[in-house]
Amino acid sequence: MSKNSTDTGCIIVTNPRGQKYRRAGLTFAPGKNKLPASDIDEQQLKTLSGDPHISVQASKTPAQPSSQSSLDDGRVDNTVAIELDLAGIDESLHPILAIMLEQRFVKKPTVDELEYQVPGIDAGEVLTIKPSAEQRNAAWKVFSHAVKQGQSS
Questions:
Q1: Crossing angle for the helix pair 133-152 and 94-103, nearest 10 degrees?
Q2: Most buried among 29, 75, 147, 153, by the most CB within 10 A?
Q3: Are 76 and 70 in contact (CB under 8 A)?
Q4: Cβ–Cβ under 8 Å, residues 111 and 95
Q5: Cα separation of 117 and 53, whole Å?
Q6: 3-state per-residue secondary structure call for the chain
Q7: Could you give the CA distance from residue 50 to residue 56 in angstroms, rounded to a whole number?
Q8: Which residues of the chain have a pLDDT value below 70?
């Protein structure tokens, strides 16, 4: 993908932090940020994809609407807008919500499905974080409310 690509897709960068986040020469607001794929070059995409603090998803814009139900694949359809305001939400839930946004779960996921990795203190060290059931439940409540809001608009 190059900046002058005719690709009609988009890149969705989910910033789970409650503040703006800057990476690869771009600034991301809290929550979901949708950018035209043609605006991001290969090096930026590589940098963004390698950053453990955000999640990156490439999405092709469909040529025509799909007749498939939003629940057929066990995920909330990409046409449903899910808006999350992270203000006032416990920061420990932000990465969990980012995973839920990226995966667009229809049923409450297991804590194993919500595991994520963060850089450790030592160079090259990676820590795996598994949320507690309480954290998963709290994040699910926020996420499912946002999905319902998106489906009703």
A1: 50
A2: 147
A3: yes
A4: no
A5: 9
A6: CCCCCCCCCEEEEEECCCCCEEECCEEECCEEEEEEHHHCCHHHHHHHHCCCCCEEEEECCCCCCCCCCCCCCCECCCCCCCCCCCCCCCHHHHHHHHHHHHHCECCCCCCHHHCEEEECCCCCCEEEECCCHHHHHHHHHHHHHHHHHHHHC
A7: 9
A8: 1-8, 59-81, 150-153
pLDDT in tens, 100-125: 888 888 889 999 999 888 888 888 88
Integer Cα distance of 95 and 99 in angstroms:
6
Whole-angstrom distance, CA of residue 63 vs CA of residue 81: 19
How much is the pLDDT for 75? 53
Q: Which among 1, 4, 28 is positioned nearest to 17, based on CA atoms?
A: 28
Calpha distance 149→73 (Å, rounded): 21
**Whole-prediction pTM:** 0.49
- How far is 45 from 43, CA to CA, in rounded Å? 5
Residue matched to tokens 């800057």: 22
Gap between the Cα atoms of 153 and 146, Å rounded: 11
